[in-house]
Amino acid sequence: VCRGYQDAGPCPSCSGTAGGCPWAQVSARCQPVPVPQRYCRDVYRGQLASVHSAARNQQLQQLARTYSYRAPWIGAVTSRRAGQWESYWEDSSPWNYANWAPYHPIQVFTTCTTLSTRDGLWRSRVCFQLRPFICQY
Q1: N or C, where is the chain less crowded by C-beta within 10 Å?
Q2: Phi, psi for 84 (deg, rounded to 5)
Q3: Any domain includes 104
Q4: Which parts pass through the membrane (predicted)?
Q5: d(CA 92, CA 113)
Q6: How far is residue 122 CA from its own chain's centroid?
Q7: Sign of CA dihedral 93, 116, 69, 31
Q8: How much is the pLDDT for 3?
Q9: Per-residue pLDDT tens digits for 59-113
């Protein structure tokens, strides 16, 4: 049910699995976004995680917290397209949920997105910052 990139149904809980999760994996190795994109594709045949519900957001927040206190990359990008700023998922899944922190997303230049392990909110960041990341597969 959880393979792929859209919430087709409920996913197994990630709690009680010592950080393991059957549909997502956090890498504690800090990398700029282009590296995790390749890593998720090459190692898991997946993508940086997309989030389509509050429940999935909370699961990923809890999973990430078991690996690092630093907010990891997820697969949301904000950029200017056809003259307008928009946020979208790298995996091309529908943009049907958002959990932005106040004053985010930043709409000055193209940004990537982190998921806070502290409050679960998303924040725009320069894509070349070194951060952990979440792959989904």
Answers
A1: N
A2: -125, 150
A3: yes
A4: none
A5: 15
A6: 9
A7: positive
A8: 37
A9: 999 999 988 889 999 999 999 988 999 999 999 999 999 999 999 999 999 999 9
**Calpha distance 37→1 (Å, rounded):** 23
Give the domain extent around 92.
24-136
Q: Are 90 and 48 in contact (CB under 8 A)?
A: yes
Report whether 85 contacts 78 (CB < 8 A).
Answer: yes
The CATH number of whichever domain residue 92 belongs to comes to 3.10.100.10
- DSSP string computed for the chain: --SSSS--SPPPP-TTSTT--SSEEEEEEEE-THHHHHHHHHHHS-EE----SHHHHHHHHHHHHTT-SSPPEEEEEEEEETTEEEEEETT--------BPTT-S--SS-EEEEE-TTT--EEEE-TTS-EEEEEE-
- Separation CA 46–CA 5 (nearest Å): 9
